[in-house]
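Example (one chain per record):
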Amino acid sequence: MAASADRFVVIADSTKPVDALHPPVPVELLAFGLASTLRRIAPVTRRDVALSPDGGVIADYTSEFPDPAALAAWLAGMTGVVEHGLFPPEMVSTVVVARGTSVEVSSFTGGG
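Predicted structure:
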């Protein structure tokens, strides 16, 4: 969905910005064939939350990964993975970060 948007805005609190991405990475999985998908993308931990609005199971990929783009491509190509929480930085047009009572807004020309 983000890839088809005119603008992709990331909104986060001040604890979210990091120098390097690290686990866990959220993933949405099809309920059909779930056991097989969980085995293929291990290590993964199911979240104890309701299903997504589309009926997907929410989980976290928990292994370290040196290359976020490679992990994103691997997850995107995996049967049973609906979506994952990684996106290329060039998609982002605006980042909004809450810092206490203030808000920091950064705009980028490559996004959208």
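Caption: Residues 31 and 55 are 7 Å apart (CA to CA).
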